[in-house]
Automatic annotation (TrEMBL):
Region (Disordered): 235-295
Native organism: Cutibacterium granulosum
Entry-linked SUPFAM superfamilies: Radical SAM enzymes
Pfam families, alphabetized: Radical_SAM (PF04055)
InterPro entries named in the record: 4Fe4S-binding_SPASM_dom, Aldolase_TIM, rSAM, rSAM_sf, Sulphatase_maturase_rSAM
Family: Belongs to the radical SAM superfamily. Anaerobic sulfatase-maturating enzyme family.
The keyword Iron belongs to this UniProt entry's keyword annotation: yes
Pro residues bias: start-end ranges: 241-252
Keywords: Iron, Iron-sulfur, Metal-binding, S-adenosyl-L-methionine
Name of the protein in its database record: Anaerobic sulfatase-maturating enzyme homolog YdeM
Cofactor names: [4Fe-4S] cluster
One MF annotation (Gene Ontology) recorded for this entry: iron-sulfur cluster binding
Annotated ranges, domain Radical SAM core: 1-218
Amino acid sequence: MTVRYLVLWPTAACDLACPYCYRRNRRGGRMGIEVADAALDLVADGVRGTGRPAHVQLAGGEPTLVPDLVEHVARRVAAIRGGRVTCGIQTNATHLDGDMVAMLRRHRVRVGVSLDGPPPVQEQARGSAAQTFRSLLELAGADVPVRVTTVLSALNVDHLGELAVTLGGLPNVTGFGLDPLVPIGSAAGREDLVPSEEAVVAGITALHRCLAQVNAMRADPLRWRELETVRAALRHAPSGPTRPGPGQPRPPATGETSRIRSTYPCCIRTPTPADDSSHTGTSSPRGNPVRNDVNCHADVVDPSGRTLLPLAMPNRPYCHAAVGESLAVAPDGSVYPCSQAVGDVASRVGTIDDVDWDGLRRRFAHDVHTLRGPCHRCALADRCPGDCPSRVEANALADPEHRHTPLTCLIDDTLARLEIAS
């Protein structure tokens, strides 16, 4: 099995105590170099054997608490990359000093910062806002590009417009994405952290409006991951009597392939006859059969772990974990299909020295991982981009009667309606 997306947790420890952190195991410890090297060897062997690109992501916990291991991984990835392997880090940015920023730039490590809003919102949600914003300025001074990840919760839903303004003032921030609250880890049972449907619609609407205003004043517009996903979905709007049913593949519109590739350089090739949608497989997050041998060729692998495949492609999986191409390694060497699954006993698929490859491939390939929402009234009903299978499962376990509309559905439907109206 080829690992296309590797997540390493240098430690499960963190200097912050975010109320919605998905970590199940908060014991610190640190990953040994031998564990990291064994995982990196899997990536290197896969790249050499297939010529297909891969991505290595440092996460956790707070990876910058183990700076020597971060640098070791960055050096190793740079040595095996050959233009085919990228490296990234997701950090709260409270420990980024000048030396670490210089190291990240030297080894071309892609930097993702966890930020939930302007300083007062960040302080309430995560704490240590002053340190985080100082580090963002340090990164800007070193001309290091940054992408921001924002957890959408009741703590910041009323301030999403301010998020756009805040990010717009940081010239090195290239874009951002919203990660809906997941009811696991610290957030398990925390109904007070779940934003209301009305608040989500209002917040997304404000963010959409403010982002347009901010981008009108920026030389390089901020790219909002969910907005780009929805725009790609809307370009596949069916028309006429040949309208496909839900879950059925549709061919790209004229010029769509080039537009997809220009918008998403990580996108996979266009479908070929070998991608026959009648192939028997398990269910994908969109309800299509997932080919266990899905051929996800791309120039690079997206740091988010999503395949970013064109919606027109048959058998489209949501992410590399959905087809067993993603591997997350905990500090003790135990392995899981993705970072969000680390510490979940049901998701453990062995150790880095003895991976259950079949279990890895099957973990997120079941019907329970299909996104379910009020599809009958969604603007993207027959071209749903889907959702993270781990998040879908967590939501189903927390809300078995589907009392709440999934936050992903609210975000995508609201954006689709705003785009259609504009």
